[in-house]
């Protein structure tokens, strides 16, 4: 993605980060944390490339998943959520 942004060949680029969702469905907390951390790093790199090349970056989601890995009863929660995401 960064290569494509740096090439400035396209007026619009889009990317889907599937790992947090896919790994979140497994219910394996440690794997979900790693998937989210890797995605965070990738988004940071893409953001810097967008800034450097005059692109506007938008981040959106249609559901949550990895932010809630445990149900209130302590069992694994592996379904989508409607929780609001927060940015730091």
TrEMBL record:
Coiled coil feature spans: none
Metalloenzyme domain residues: 2-83
GO biological process, one term: glucose catabolic process
A molecular function GO annotation: phosphoglycerate mutase activity
Alphabetical list of Pfam families matching this protein: Metalloenzyme
Name of the protein this chain belongs to: Cofactor-independent phosphoglycerate mutase (inferred by orthology to a C. elegans protein)
